[in-house]
Amino acid sequence: MKNREQKIFVFDVGNTLIEKPNNHMNFELIQDLFTLQKQGNLIGLATMRNLTMLEKLISQLRFDFIIALNGAYVICKNNILIDSPIDDFELIQFLNILKSKEIQYELYKKYNITNSIEEEGCVYGIKIKNCSDHIDFLRENFHSFIFYSWEDGKICDVHSTNTSKSKAMELVCNYYNISLQNSIVFGDGFNDIDLFKLCNISVAMETAPDELKQVASFVTKSVSNNGVSWALKHLQL
Q1: What is the CATH number of the domain that holds 129?
Q2: For 61, how many CA atoms within 13 A lie in the half-sphere containing its CB?
Q3: Which residue, of 141, 160, 179, is where some domain finishes?
Q4: Per-residue confidence in pLDDT tens, the chain, 237 aa
């Protein structure tokens, strides 16, 4: 079905393809990604963002697959490969603890972000804020969740241990019948570490934490300096 030379590229979004809070890629990057597709390669996204947050990006380029909500929702073309929301019982227990400790949170659903569990739609991820004093306690008491801290623990993304970017990427590669030896990942965050360990070539952005750079094959320039395009040319990908 697919030849051995075909490659599969997966990109984080914020501070990789776009500079926050902007939701648009620059023209040079769009052209470079389009060229990858014209050469017969596949390109996709792997992000903690939900589908609504990706709309502007998707309008600029037709991606072959989307790994959204840190791997809890995955779609290839029009085929849903993963649709795995957080278990309701575990979610309620977790939110009760957050409320008791007065920790602010946002619930990530497929198409919206809310503060209320009562609103329609399943919850796929949770963002908690100003939680640095409570992270250790939460990790020790909720083993079914994985915690990705940002900004020195001021912000933390929480997802089920049943889902991850790497698990989703393995499924995508199987779907397209492409070997992981032909996989390339670009990213900038802690939630990319498992994906960096999985893919054959891993490119960390200049602004990525040291923990990600340590497992990367290559470190490129920042998104403001068009790091993805620079790495594609430098590595001759």
Answers
A1: 3.30.1240.10
A2: 26
A3: 160
A4: 444 489 999 999 999 999 877 778 999 999 999 999 999 999 999 999 999 999 999 999 999 999 999 999 999 988 999 999 999 999 999 999 999 999 999 999 999 999 988 888 999 999 999 888 899 999 999 999 999 988 776 899 999 999 999 999 999 999 999 999 999 999 999 999 999 999 999 999 999 999 999 999 999 999 999 999 999 999 988
pTM for the model? 0.94
* 75 and 167 both lie in a single domain: yes
Residue at 210 is within a domain: yes
Strands (E), 93-221: 104-108, 113-114, 125-129, 145-150, 155-160, 183-187, 201-204, 218-219
Residues in the chain: 237
